[in-house]
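One thing: could you explain this record?
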Amino acid sequence: TPVKKISASDTPIYVYHGNLYKSEDQYKMPEFYGLALKRDNPRDLLLGRNGKIPISDGIVDAVQSQDVLEHVDPAFVVDTLNEIYRILKTRGFFRLSVPDYRSPLLLKRTIFNHKGEALGDAGMGATAFVQDLNSELQIKHTAPAGDNHLWLPTYEKISEFLGSSKFTNSEIRFLHYIRSDGS
């Protein structure tokens, strides 16, 4: 199926940042689209290699990105957020949900270096290695492309990305996160 570009419409347009699977109720509704790195069906739009979204400016009513942004190379996270901002209507809604790498579950899987810095998630494709006996601990991602957590979200990191994006002057509400003191 050819990849189409979504343009303005009289009906609402909703985008799920990820694949929209046939088993989901939204798949049956024509106003819903998936935005994926690889297309699994005709309802998925293909995210461009350069991070571009094939949707016209300011026509999307809502975007949901749930457990997707941590799979994007951190060098392109702000660009991705800016693309989402670009496609949203002026009063559009963006819901962002990412794993919190201060949660007890994720801390169990996290690989840390000797300085206590989180390097990667062993449960999401990170493997630790050293170049030689005198080198720093490093990680490589071994899961299939798109399945790795390429960075480890925390409240501060998300705040930094949003503050560097076009969302910086938008109303932003954090509903749940763990602070650096564990509260």
